[in-house]
Structures are given as structure tokens and as C-alpha cells.
């Protein structure tokens, strides 16, 4: 087995035993866990203000999983860093999108978050007449549950330049044309988008879906 395959195998093993239940990446020390042993990144634990595990609903503790941390540290030099620069860990999905600014285009996909407990439509529209790009996420399920989620969307050009939008999720029965028309979604002009197109002629985007915190 060559080094590349060996590293790939270790990454696959890590993804099975050390996947954060929030960002769905390999956890990075310090590691927190619930009473049943399901693990989360400390940064995800703090950001989401977790009280219960999303898998088993048992209490989540800020106490560190020392054994797993030692395992991760022992092989981290042989596998890619899941949370490079403490940045990519925040986003479950990153992709470079091909944009044809001359033609209308629509794309629909289904993405899952929270370890497969919630599914969302990813909808993208290129409007050549209005010279605008649109993105929206719709929760697949009841409207009352859709109100519990929002998404953060980012178009980026290097470590500094970013175009960021946070927006509420609507459920899948809401007419997507109304969402686009009222611009209750991510909207980007062609002029702005062209400033973020990379050397390969693609637009780098990343996003995550989060639960609305109820502090009351």
C-alpha cells in the first residue's frame, strides 16, 4: 500500500470514529462528547451552545476526550487537516461553481445536515436578463420546523475577500420564484460575481445550515 492510499485509509477510518456531529468533519482537538461517546469539535460545542446530543439526546459535556485527542495528534501529520486555518471547519460544503453569464441556468440538489437528520433543497438560478445570481435553501418538511433553521452563504476570493449572506430557511412548499423575486435569499450581481471568479473561471462558494438559537 502506498503512502497516498494509506493516508486515505486512515482518513476514512477517522471519518467513521471521529466525525463531529455538527460540522460533519473529522474533529480537531480539543474534543467534546456526549455521555454515549458521540463527539463534537469544541468550537462547534461553544458556537451551538449544545446541551443535548443531536444523535441520542443525551447530555453533552465540555469535558475533553483525551484518548481520542491523543489518537488524532498521533496521525495528524499523515492525514489532511480537516479544519485548516480554523476556517473550512465551519462549512460542510465547499464547491467551485461554473457560471455562464450569457445564459439562464437552474440547479436543484438535495443536501443533508445534522448527520442526516434534516434535508434541504439547494436551489441556484442564473438570470441573464437581470444579470443576477440567486441561491436559496429550503427545508424539506413542515413549515414550523423550517423556522428553526437558517443558512450562511459565502462567496470568497482568497483569505480576505468575502461576500457573505445569512438568511432564514423556508420550507419546500414555498414557491421558489417568490423567494427569488422578493430576494429573500442570496442575491449577487454579475458585476460583483465576476470579481470573485478564480483563475479556473469558476466561482468559489461555501455554505452551512445552522439551527436558530432560542435563548428565551
TrEMBL record:
Reactions catalysed, as given in the entry: S-ubiquitinyl-[E2 ubiquitin-conjugating enzyme]-L-cysteine + [acceptor protein]-L-lysine = [E2 ubiquitin-conjugating enzyme]-L-cysteine + N(6)-ubiquitinyl-[acceptor protein]-L-lysine
PROSITE patterns (alphabetical): ZF_RING_2 (PS50089)
One Pfam family it belongs to: Sina_RING
Recorded metabolic or biological pathway in which this protein acts: Protein modification; protein ubiquitination
Domain RING-type positions: 20-57
GO molecular function, one term: zinc ion binding
Keywords: Metal-binding, Ubl conjugation pathway, Zinc, Zinc-finger
Enzyme Commission code(s) on record: 2.3.2.27
GO cellular component: cytoplasm
Keyword Membrane: no
GO process terms (BP): proteasome-mediated ubiquitin-dependent protein catabolic process; protein ubiquitination
Top-level enzyme category: transferase
SUPFAM superfamilies: RING/U-box (SSF57850)
Recorded family membership: Belongs to the SINA (Seven in absentia) family.
Function in brief: E3 ubiquitin-protein ligase that mediates ubiquitination and subsequent proteasomal degradation of target proteins. E3 ubiquitin ligases accept ubiquitin from an E2 ubiquitin-conjugating enzyme in the form of a thioester and then directly transfers the ubiquitin to targeted substrates.
Free-text comment on this protein's domains from its UniProt entry: The RING-type zinc finger domain is essential for ubiquitin ligase activity.
Protein name: E3 ubiquitin-protein ligase
Annotated source species: Dendroctonus ponderosae (Mountain pine beetle)
Amino acid at each position: 500500500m502506498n503512502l497516498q492510499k494509506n493516508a486515505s485509509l486512515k482518513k476514512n477510518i477517522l471519518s467513521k470514529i471521529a466525525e463531529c456531529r455538527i460540522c460533519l468533519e473529522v474533529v480537531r482537538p480539543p474534543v467534546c462528547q456526549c455521555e454515549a461517546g458521540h463527539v463534537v469539535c469544541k468550537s462547534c460545542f461553544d458556537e451551538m451552545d449544545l446541551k443535548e446530543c443531536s444523535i441520542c439526546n443525551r447530555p453533552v459535556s465540555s469535558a475533553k476526550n483525551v484518548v481520542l485527542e491523543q489518537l488524532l495528534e498521533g496521525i495528524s501529520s499523515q492525514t489532511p487537516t480537516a479544519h485548516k486555518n480554523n476556517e473550512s471547519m465551519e462549512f460542510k460544503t465547499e464547491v467551485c461553481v461554473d457560471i455562464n453569464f450569457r445564459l439562464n441556468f437552474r440547479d436543484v440538489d438535495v443536501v443533508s445536515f445534522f448527520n442526516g437528520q434534516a434535508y434541504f433543497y439547494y436551489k441556484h438560478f442564473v438570470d441573464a436578463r437581470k444579470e443576477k445570481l440567486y441561491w436559496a435553501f429550503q427545508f424539506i418538511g413542515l413549515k414550523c420546523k423550517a423556522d428553526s433553521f437558517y443558512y450562511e452563504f459565502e462567496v470568497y476570493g482568497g483569505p480576505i475577500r468575502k461576500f457573505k449572506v445569512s438568511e432564514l430557511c423556508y420550507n419546500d412548499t414555498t414557491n421558489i420564484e417568490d423567494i427569488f423575486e422578493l430576494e429573500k435569499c442570496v442575491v449577487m450581481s454579475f458585476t460583483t460575481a465576476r470579481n470573485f471568479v478564480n483563475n479556473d473561471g469558476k466561482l468559489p462558494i461555501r455554505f452551512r445550515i445552522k439551527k436558530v438559537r432560542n435563548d428565551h
